[in-house]
Write a structure and sequence with these properties.
Elements: E1 11-15, E2 18-20, E3 33-34, E4 52-57, H1 62-77, E5 83-88, H2 98-107, E6 114-116, H3 121-126, E7 133-137, E8 143-148, H4 153-163
Parallel strand pairs: 4-5, 5-6
Antiparallel strand pairs: 1-2, 3-6, 4-7, 7-8
């Protein structure tokens, strides 16, 4: 798999088994935020120092809903080692309403940070095209892994284990 987003070719691997797809764009235009201290905005620059999993999703997307329990487990399992961030990008008009998103987040019992990308700024900056899509970033905010669609949970977690400190432990999801 080769991602090209106007940043050139894939760089040589610096982590075993994980290609380097280039720097992740900042999460510009993502607001408001849910599940952050006082609902303050998050920035990738502010999260440098540990791996970050970013998922683009929409609450009325059934495939997206199927990924949420997995992301919640990852957020709990790797607390302090991995930051899970949801970027809610609406597919339907009813998904643009912040109150509807907040209700969906509460209903799904999601506790990790979720930002609303109603103007598709982050979506376009990442060159994203599908719901759901996961981007796994290393400690320097470089894209190291992607997963389009639901599933491939073991493969996704194996990639995470390569980036978290002491991450060689085996877990089943």
């Amino acid at each position: 798999m080769r991602l090209r987003r106007g940043r050139g070719e894939v760089r040589p691997r610096s982590e075993p088994g994980l290609p380097d797809f280039g720097p992740a764009p900042e999460l510009h235009g993502v607001h408001p935020w849910l599940n952050t201290p006082t609902n303050e905005p998050l920035t990738l620059a502010g999260l440098v120092g540990g791996p970050v999993l970013v998922e683009f999703w929409a609450f009325a997307c059934s495939n997206c809903l199927h990924t949420l329990p997995f992301l919640s487990r990852l957020s709990e399992r790797y607390r302090g080692e991995l930051t899970v961030v949801g970027v809610h990008t609406p597919e339907l008009p009813l998904e643009r309403v912040p109150g509807n998103v907040a209700r969906a987040v509460r209903s799904a019992r999601l506790t990790y940070p979720i930002g609303l990308d109603n103007d598709y700024e982050a979506w376009n900056a990442f060159g994203n095209r599908y719901w759901p899509t996961i981007y796994l970033l290393d400690a320097e905010s470089r894209i190291r892994y992607t997963q389009i669609g639901e599933g491939q949970y073991r493969r996704t977690e194996a990639a995470i284990r390569q980036l978290v400190p002491g991450g060689s432990q085996s877990t089943d999801s």
